[in-house]
Amino acid sequence: MKLTATQYDAVAARAECLVTAAEMDAALDSMAAALTAQLADKDPLVLCVMTGAVIAAGLLLPRLNFQLRVDYLHASRYQGATRGGELAWRHRPSAAIRGEHILILDDILDEGITLAQVIRACHEDGAASVLSAVLVEKQRPHQCQADVVGVVVADRYLYGYGLDYKNYFRNAPGIFAVADADI
Ligand SMILES: O=P(O)(O)OC[C@H]1O[C@H](OP(=O)(O)OP(=O)(O)O)[C@H](O)[C@@H]1O
Ligand SMILES: Nc1nc2[nH]cnc2c(=O)[nH]1
């Protein structure tokens, strides 16, 4: 469903900025340093978890100044909603994963259901090793941990830097918490 311009502006006006673009830049630099230390000699295959990780990939990959390749997987459990359901696989690059050092790149670790299943799928598909990195981790229990985390934020519904609200706001230049009234 599309938001009208009035609805869009009202959601933005009520949202709270939790992390600024400048803070995200610093977090991305730290993530790149940690990933470089762990992967620079591994010729990894970076798997972007579509759709949310598209911004993370665009901002992080140019900071990784070493030999790597990029592919994507598409797994989704929110599909525009503010509560997650079953994970739906739309693209699982099984053949490309065998024997590779995999870096899974996602926008957020929330319940951890997505990341846990993606990690398991990479092992099932014969990865040589699996590392994971997320831009944002919510302060709450998760089914699994990410190896590299950008920022840790409160357990609220978020948008920006790839995270959507009703399929909008993935391009927002910060991490914003949606107002209770809009959830
Ligand atoms: O830790 P979890 O509770 O499993 O949630 C994290 C997942 O939720 C979002 O994906 P979503 O299903 O919304 O798809 P999207 O990437 O297309 O936004 C996000 O990109 C993560 O993959
Ligand atoms: N957009 C968005 N997607 C999510 N997936 C899991 N948690 C979130 C969240 O807070 N915002």
UniProtKB/TrEMBL annotation:
<dbReference type="InterPro" id="IPR029057">
    <property type="entry name" value="PRTase-like"/>
</dbReference>
<dbReference type="GO" id="GO:0005829">
    <property type="term" value="C:cytosol"/>
</dbReference>
<dbReference type="InterPro" id="IPR000836">
    <property type="entry name" value="PRTase_dom"/>
</dbReference>
<dbReference type="GO" id="GO:0000287">
    <property type="term" value="F:magnesium ion binding"/>
</dbReference>
<dbReference type="GO" id="GO:0032263">
    <property type="term" value="P:GMP salvage"/>
</dbReference>
<dbReference type="GO" id="GO:0004422">
    <property type="term" value="F:hypoxanthine phosphoribosyltransferase activity"/>
</dbReference>
<feature type="domain" description="Phosphoribosyltransferase">
    <location>
        <begin position="26"/>
        <end position="139"/>
    </location>
</feature>
<dbReference type="Pfam" id="PF00156">
    <property type="entry name" value="Pribosyltran"/>
</dbReference>
<dbReference type="GO" id="GO:0046100">
    <property type="term" value="P:hypoxanthine metabolic process"/>
</dbReference>
<keyword id="KW-0328">Glycosyltransferase</keyword>
<keyword id="KW-0808">Transferase</keyword>
<dbReference type="GO" id="GO:0006178">
    <property type="term" value="P:guanine salvage"/>
</dbReference>
<dbReference type="InterPro" id="IPR050408">
    <property type="entry name" value="HGPRT"/>
</dbReference>
<protein>
    <submittedName>
        <fullName>Hypoxanthine-guanine phosphoribosyltransferase</fullName>
    </submittedName>
</protein>
<dbReference type="GO" id="GO:0032264">
    <property type="term" value="P:IMP salvage"/>
</dbReference>
